[in-house]
Amino acid sequence: MLAIGDELLSGRTKDRNIGYLAEMMTVAGIDLKEVRIVGDEPHLIADTLNTLRRQYDYVFTSGGIGPTHDDITADAVAAAFSLPIGEHPEAMSRLSAHYVARGLEFTEARRRMARTPEGASLIDNPVSVAPGFRVDNVFVMAGVPNVFQAMLGKVIESLPAGQAIESVAVACPYGEGDIGDPLRALSKLHPGVAIGSYPRFDGERFSTEIVIRSRDKAALDAAASAVSTMLADKASGAPAATPG
Prior knowledge:
With 244 residues, the protein is an alpha/beta fold.
């Protein structure tokens, strides 16, 4: 994912799209591998986009496709693909009808939201009409969270679903420092499973939530059982299992 906007880097806007995308990708069985945040600099956006699109199957962007002068994402995407940019006929039709229905002038600023790189296909916007667009494996969407979410819903419908990742959460009464070594050993014993630890503090003591994830149900169950056994052994003082 590529999140775009000076306001994200200055802290003025707190991003809500990254977490939502991560949740939806997990449900769809698609691995989110990397997230970058860049400011409103055309060359930086284009260079970063070129790096990501050549490395991953899909790239999702957020931000910078509104009506103001600093909404430059469409231009940067066009530059990344070495494509001319212009007003997309269907986007123009949708926006024109939208503003006529509202009794508002279809100004030059509003027409900017119809600009896409040549050959782009549109991403529907059921919230505020102004569409996002797709070029090759790059999906360009709005930064406003409810609009981003609506657009992403349309995008996911068009993507082939992967095998969903299942997860099991195991409550652990020990802090991470107490279980780090046995968890590392279990990770080596269960290479097809991701085992993560997330510290908790209730104001009095530390604990940990251990989350096990895998697309293989049998492997997931085996790792979850091993984690539970490790915790039981620790409580009883028995030595932890080690890789053979």
